[in-house]
Structure formats: structure tokens, C-alpha cells
Amino acid sequence: MDSVGQRRMSELHRGRRDQLEVSPNLWAGVGLVRGGAGTALVGDPDTVAARMREYIALGIDSFILSGYPHLEEAYRFAELVLPRLPLADGTPGPPTASAHRGPFGEMVGNVIVPAGPRAAAS
């Protein structure tokens, strides 16, 4: 709680709960509900994806994402936001989450799509 990151986060809102939105859709209140520094992108899937595209346009190419509860939020992000983000080569993402499905029904969150089922070894 005494880290430089935590101090900077506290300076953003100065402890005022009415000042927690420090930028459009960027909520600095995460440190009020759990320890450590952090912010949250908040909003509907289109809004969160739009903010992430803005960060991507600024040159950010990696995000550390979490949510509460973690597993459920990972699925929600994969199904609702990920399809709205550009692919690694900058082309627009597919219009539906089904385009991110691998051959085994799993969600694919990167540019490497697994090959289809392999023939059983004899």
C-alpha cells in the first residue's frame, strides 16, 4: 500500500469518491476495493473496446486484464470485447465471437489458431 504506484493512484482521485473516473471510462477506485495500484476500464463492450483501440493507437500493445470474479470476467471479455478489437495485423476483428472459436470450440485469444483434430496414432 506504500508503493510509488499506489501513491500515484491515490493522487489521481485524492481519496474523493466523486473523482474516481480519472479519464473517460477509466475508473481509479480499484485500490479502494482491493490492495495495490490499478485502474479499470468500465462501460459496455463497445465502449471498453473503443477505449482499448485508443490505447492501441497510442502504441500500447499489451494489457494486463482482470475482473471480478476472475474466470467469469475472462469469459465475458473474450465473448463481448475481444471480437471488437483489431487483430494483430491491425485489420478489424471479426464481427462475432464465433469467429474466435478454435476447432475444439475454445475461445482463441491470440493469432495462433490451433490445427483441427489430429488423426489418432496407431
TrEMBL record:
Record key words, sorted: Monooxygenase, Oxidoreductase
Gene Ontology MF terms: monooxygenase activity
The keyword Cytoplasm is annotated on this UniProt entry: no
Transmembrane segments: none
UniProt entry tagged with the keyword Oxidoreductase: yes
Alphabetical list of InterPro entries matching this protein: Luciferase-like_sf, SsuD_RutA_monooxygenase
PANTHER family xref list: ALKANESULFONATE MONOOXYGENASE, ALKANESULFONATE MONOOXYGENASE-RELATED
Protein name: Alkanesulfonate monooxygenase
Organism of this sequence: Methylobacterium crusticola
